[in-house]
Structure formats: structure tokens, C-alpha cells
Description:
heterodimer, A: mainly alpha, ABC transporter permease (chain A), cell membrane (chain A), membrane (chain A), BPD_transp_1_N (chain A), transmembrane helix (chain A)
Amino acid sequence: MFAYVVKRLLAGVLVLFLVSMSIFLLFWYGPNEPARVMCDTKTSNRCNAERLDRFTEELGYNNAWYAEYGDYVKGVFVGRDITVAAQTTRCDAPCFGLSYKNGKPVWEDMKDRLPATFSVAIGGATLYLLLGVPLGVAAARRRGTVQDKALVSSFLFLSSVPYYLFALLTWLFFSLKWEVPLIGDTGYVPLTESPTAWFGGLALAWICLGIFGCTQYTRYARGAMVEALSEDYIRTAKAKGLPTRTVVYRHGLRAALVPIVTIFGIDFGTLLAGTIFTERIFDIEGIGLWSLRAVMQRDLPIVSATALFSAVVLIMANLIVDLVYSILDPRVRLS
Amino acid sequence: MSSTEPFLVVEDLTVRFPTEDGLVTAVQDLSYSVEKGKTLGIVGESGSGKSVSSMAVLGLHDARTARITGSIRVDGQEVVGLNEAGLRKLRGRQIAMIFQDALAALHPFYKIGGQLAEAYQVHHPKATKREARRKAVEMLDRVGIPQPDRRVDDFPHQFSGGMRQRAMIAMGLINDPSLLIADEPTTALDVTVQAQILDLLQDLQSEFNSAVIIITHDLGVIAEMADDVLVMYAGRGVEYGPGKEILTRPQMPYTWGLLSSVPDVTGDTDSKLIPIPGNPPSLLNPPTGCAFHPRCVHSDKVEGDLCATTMPAFEQGNSGVRHLKRCHLRDPEVIFEREVLPVIAPELLEEK
């Protein structure tokens, strides 16, 4: 087991190394003028060819890529000093460079936005799991009945609605029409600052993600459960005289959890990497919204940092899924 | 009532499944009985209704998908129409079932010991975990699992095929059931292990004095185990009587067909393997008359088209003893001796 974890971690590190290098090279050889943004900012939009050359030189774009990449990696682990326009900024580890737009170390901005994204993702995922799995189990137990068909078809309809429209409707109904208490102005307020404002600001985003995501999870859970309940060992469990509840949950759901966990791990990783739509619609200053803005402003260090962050999160999610999988299924554990 | 009646009595059992294509009649007008300490063998091809009828004894069919009529009495108690709570008391306690393919029938995520203990605890709610575990170890020991106190913590996939089937049997017998239904208990096993499992079942049966139903398509298993034999075809009983009688003096062409399809390792090579032509009939749209007539090579010996038009009654033949058959043939004994025996077992005739 331990050797397995170590092996997977090492593989993860290797993948991260390759991903970070690819991102770096992509931006290095990409069809753009990376120094243009910083040149514009520092010279109050009076950037000319000569100044652009100077910034290109200062940012290191005239050096060999591997030398710069080495500096970049070193910065990530131990930090480094970056000198631009005769001004030296200390960039502490993990250093992903300085924002071309505001000149601040990328990590400083990033660490302020992580809690917002994590709050949105964890709340939304909790809600869609809590709604989706029990609904899916209930539907599987009533497979073929009118209730089951009604649920499946209405959820299919719901999941065909474009997400932004769905989000808009959520906002219109929950916030404006019904004026549900506790739902405040959308936006992110740190939990430590004001728990009620934190909750109120994120509630709509959670509801939106929760309901939209639960349509998928109801389908997954229903499918997994239908399959599990048709297994021979379910018949054995019934033949033992076990109560229906034990048969369905202890024997059925336990087996159905494996595929659900697998999908959830990857899904949740994607959520953590940035819920761009949700953050944009509900005006939550998280990683997603931040990276979206960075792309539009061509703020390369931020774009590459968020890309790298996504990779880290997805690799971690995969690793955790594999570990959970081996806990759930003893056949994986021992082979 | 229960003192005079056999332990299990099945009367006119009919099991139907409504499907989108129509009503599937999986079992029709099936009657049999088993006494304590006796073994009934149910033989037939796949889809003949063997498993469906036995699952009805445990009430395992979903009430929403199966329509069951007739009567099943276990120790005098009616099972058909019994509520879920009543069924749960019977299942695993009075009637236990052993399934084929123990790898699929055991839960892959739980330890063998846990699954056995669970079966014990559900009917002994006062038993502690430790007692249930001790009982599980004891049962594993009883069915011949080596080092049971260690193997009790193994998962099913760590057991060999034979050991899994033994564990399955241990689980079935953990509450001393009065009736054990073994649904093709040896199908997934290799022959040497098959013999061990059958021996084990026989030993345990004499020890517990339980009634046993063994479902199989293997006539060798029947010859080894069964006191009584019920041959099923297309959901109905077609021949029913004492095992020896059925195997030596069968009166129904389908049973002859089954006997002809058994390879004989001890016999000489003159004996031939003759498969039954055709396929089992559709239960959605069964043939008119005798369900077996489209595949029957002897139907020309029956006057007119009786076989194709009239379902033969399930009645006593000429042999005198309790031996029911469902066939229009007038003199099946003569045809069996003259036409069937010489082909499938010529050495038997030479002895005569």
C-alpha cells in the first residue's frame, strides 16, 4: 500500500514537471509579445519599440528558455528576487513570477482567491452529492415506476438547460422573487470576517451548482445502483433474510459507491481548478474569475500559474480517487 | 397439519412475469414435496423454470414483477402471499439457499467471516459480534476450510473456487435451516471439487436432518444425491418419481434425451452421445399441446396429432410405483428398452 502511494506520488511529480514545462514553453514560443503588458503598465501606455525591447530583455525573454525555466522552478521552491524597471521585488516561495499588470507576486493574489473557489466548490459539491446520491438510490429502487420515469426525464430536461440561463433563473427566483432569507448579495466575504455574509454571498452559487450537478449525480447513482442491485450477491443478501434497508444500503450502495467516487473525484478536481461560469455569474473573486481576467489582460504569469494549479489539483484528485478506490474495493487493495 | 404433511409442499405453483412482449410463464402448475432428511433433485435445461420455482419458495421474486399463484407450504406455513416480514423470518433461518457461482454470489467487498456473521446475527439479534464470529469460524471449520480462524478474515477473491462454495454452504447452514436449496452448487467447479462438495452436502444433510432440493442439469449429481427426481421442461414437471426409478426406467422422451446426452466415462465407446435436437421453447409463446413435441423423436408413435394439440396430463404411468409422467406414449417402457437403451448403454442389455 505504502509503496503504491509513493509510486503514484512520484508519477504525479513527473507529470507536474512535464505539465509545467509544457505551459512554460507554450507561452515562451507562443505568438505574442509577453513584455507588452508590463511595458504598457509601467510606461502608462506610452510603450514604444525601444521600451518594449528593454522590457523583453529585463523579463529574460532574450535568454535561453531552459535557463529561464530553471529560474522559474527554483523560484517555485525557494523564491527569488525579480528586478524589473530598476525595481527589485522579493518574490517568496512558491514564486510564480510577478503579475505583468500590477507587479505583485502572483502567489500573493492567488492565496487570497483560493478560499473563495474552495468555498464555492466544496459547498456546491456537498449539495449535489447530498441531493443526487439519495435521489439516484430512490429512483433505482423504484426502477420502471412512474416516479422513476418522472424524475429521470425531468432531470434530463433540467440538465439540458444552458448553465448560465439556469444560474440566471436561480438568481431571479431564489433571490428576487421568493426572497429566500439568508441569501444576501452575491460575492465572496471571508468566513473569518463574517460567517453570515460568507454564507449569504455563496448560497446562490451553491444552489446553482448543487441543483445542476445533482441532475448528473442522480443519473450516475441511479445507474450504479441499478447495476449493483441486480448483482448475485444482492440476491444472496435477501436470501439470508436481511432487512431491505441493509440489503439496499450495506450491500447495494456500498458497491455502487465505487463508480460514483471515481466520477466525483475528477469532477471535484475540475471544480477546484476554477468554477469560471459560477464565479463570473455570481461575481465571486475566485481562481476562475481571476484566470479569466488574466487571459483577457494577457497577464502571462497568472495564466501559467492558474494552469499549473489546475494540473496540481487534477493530479491530486486522481491520486485521492485511486486511494479511496483501493479502500473501497479490497480486490484493488491487495493486487 | 405440519405433523402429517411433508416439510415442503408445493402445489400448482405458477410464476408469471409480465414483460413488454407479453406474459412469460416461467413455471406452470408445478407440484412437488420434500420431507426432512430427503433430497429432491430438480433437473432440466436452462430456462426450464428450475431456479425460478425454487426462488419462489423463498419468496425472492419481486412482487411488482412476478405473479405467483398456487401454494407453497413450509412446515405448514403458506409462503405465497406472505408479507416481507414473514418471509424474512423464513429466509436464511428455515430455508437457506446456496447459489451457483459463489464468486458472484458473495459480496466482493466484505470479508467471508463478516458475511457469515451477518447471516447469523440477523436471526440471532441477541448474539454479540464475538459470538457471531465464533459461529462463523465454527461453520467454516465444519465445511472443511483449513485454518478457519485465519481464513475467516479473507475476502472472497482470496478463496479458491471450491473454498468459496464451501463458504457459501457454511453461510447457508449457519442457522441450522430445515430446508436447503442448492441451485447448481457445483456447476462452476472442476470435477474433483464437485465430488467433495457433494459429499460435504450429504454429510451435512445427515447431520442436520434437513430437507434438500438440489437443482442441476447434471444427471450424475442426481444419481449421487437425490432420493426423488423432478424433471422439468418449459416450466412444467414432465416426470417425477423416486430417483432410481427415473434413472433406470424413465418414461418420458425428454428424460431419455437427457440421459442420452450424458457422457459415460466408465462405459465402452459403443455408447453414443445423442444431443436433444432443437432448442428449449419460448416461454412467451410455448408450443401447442405437449411443449416438448417439436423436439420429440417419438411423437410419430402417438396416434393422430395428439402431441401437437393436447397437453398430456401429469399422471401415473404403468410402472405401478409413485412415478408421474407427462406423455401421450402408451408403452414407453417398451420403446425405452427397444430403441433408447441399445444406443446409450449397450452394455446394460448385454448383461441381461
